[in-house]
Amino acid sequence: MGWVKSVISKSDLVLEVLDSREPMLTRSRKIENMVKFRKDLLLVLNKADLVPMEVLKMWKRYFENQGLKTVFVSSREHQGTKILRDSIKELLRKNEGVVGVIGYPKTGKSSVINVLKGHHAASTSSIPMTTGFTKSLQLIKIDSRIYAIDSPGVIPPDGDSFEKALRGSRPEDLEDPVKVAIMLIERIMKFDPDTLSLTYKVQFSTPMDLLEKIALKRGWVYKSDREPNVDQASVQLIRDYHEGKIAYYNIPPGFENDKTRDI
Ligand SMILES: Nc1nc2c(ncn2[C@@H]2O[C@H](COP(=O)(O)OP(=O)(O)O)[C@@H](O)[C@H]2O)c(=O)[nH]1
Ligand SMILES: [Mg+2]
């Protein structure tokens, strides 16, 4: 995590990019504690296109109740980028500075930088890292005098295998992708019972049944017994999740009774 410290020390403001579907699981308290003053931290709930507006607002309230400034954006749909830009300027307190972008893998750090880049696409420069690093940090121009640091690494996914998967660990590196995929399916269905049948265009009864149907639909079978290859289906499902193809949401703690009827 040495490079994270380096990015933070070079930044006037740190954006922590979270997945709007799993804000709690994709935030890193370790990183937040490294950013000493909370005014210098902005939580960016990315992939907001996958979550209902009412739920996004709950999450914003939840974090802001804890004193954490929060915006939600969809870098895919280019939504919320004006608010993000304005919040960056407000927190920098002037129209210049360096913005470090950090987060677990697959939360959308590069995508967020891309939308901020806009027409400044060609301008980059670099600053040397602290001793011990051979690479320098790339500075990407996002406004006339504001630069973003595209981190040379990411926060390594930690926790148990399920948490690691949701924190962007490569699904093909998982020891038991089927176990993780089943847990993910169960979690998704708790709030959004229909989203998976809509995504995969199949009807299913159990998580294993869904994995078998995904495998059969793509013609994936084990060579040994021609049974549906649920390992491959599980890796695919986790990859689809990372790539923002599965819409679902979580309700922040304490907001369960807030759930409005139109979600
Ligand atoms: N649905 C959706 N998917 C997104 C969004 N932003 C990024 N993604 C997808 O999430 C995956 C990871 O994005 P990337 O920017 O590479 O994440 P990074 O690893 O944090 O730099 C990619 O497949 C993106 O297409 C978003 O706002 N909405
Ligand atoms: Mg990236």
UniProtKB/TrEMBL annotation:
CDD domains: MJ1464
Keyword terms of this UniProt record: GTP-binding, Nucleotide-binding
Family annotation (Pfam families): MMR_HSR1
SUPFAM superfamilies from the UniProt entry: P-loop containing nucleoside triphosphate hydrolases (SSF52540)
GO molecular function: GTP binding
Superkingdom of the source species: Archaea
Signal peptide (from-to): none
Xref: PANTHER family: GTP-BINDING PROTEIN-RELATED, GUANINE NUCLEOTIDE-BINDING PROTEIN-LIKE 3 HOMOLOG
Family from the record: Belongs to the TRAFAC class YlqF/YawG GTPase family. MTG1 subfamily.
Protein name, UniProt field: GTP-binding protein
Species for this entry: Metallosphaera hakonensis JCM 8857 = DSM 7519
